[in-house]
Amino acid sequence: MTTKHGACGVVVSQGSILLMYREKEVKKYYVFPGGGIEEGEAPEEAVVREFAEETNITVKPIRPIYYINYDDNTDRVYFLCDYISGTPKLQKNTNEFERMQTEEGQYYEPKWLPLARLNETIVFPLQIRDLVIEDIKNSFNQEPKRLSIVRAIERQV
Q1: 140: domain range?
Q2: Of 142 and 98, the one with more pLDDT
Q3: Which end of the chain is more exposed for a tag (fewer CB within 10 A), N or C?
């Protein structure tokens, strides 16, 4: 089985974090923006492209902060990113926009969430949310962390 590689970003600006709000039927939660790495694309390029496509935001990757291996044969590198410009808006030429048009009960919206609400908000993966909460306190001044995550909770959503 081939491993699927992806890149996600953590963007904190002016006391808020940029996340993708999701509704899937009656379930409501957030995820970190990102997606698959395309053939010949560097992870840093993928995170910039995914943010532009999904959120209309321009970011600059600073450095990797988490390397995640999932039990479904996927892996993700999470980058700490600088916010450069843009206003959160789902772009029309994305898979997410298409799903909203064709599948009932699907909704996507990029949003700035106040950091003060992060601890009380469902953000998948929960382990990454918890790491981000801790690492914000340290200004992300540590070596990248490596984790293995079971997607059992996310599969229920």
Answers
A1: 4-156
A2: 142
A3: N
Give the number of domains in the chain. 1
Q: Answer yes or no: are the C-beta atoms of 46 and 134 closer than 8 Å.
A: no
Structure token digits, residue 3 = 């491993």
Structure token digits, residue 31: 């995820």
Q: How far is Cα 129 from Cα 17, in angstroms, rounded to an integer?
A: 11
Question: Which amino acid, one-letter code, is at 132?
Answer: V
Q: Which two tokens stand for residue 79?
A: 């980058």
**Residue 117 belongs to domain with CATH number:** 3.90.79.10
Q: What pTM does this model have?
A: 0.91
Residue 138: beta bridge partners? none
Give the separation between CA 115 and CA 124, rounded to whole angstroms. 15
Q: Which of 59, 111, 62, 112 is nearest to 85 (CA)?
A: 59
Which contacts qualify for 147-151: CB closer than 8 Å, 24 or more apart? 147/66, 147/67, 147/68, 147/69, 148/68, 148/69, 148/70, 148/71, 149/68, 149/69, 149/70, 149/71, 149/125, 150/70, 150/71, 151/70, 151/71, 151/72, 151/125
φ and ψ of 139, to 5 deg: 55, 30
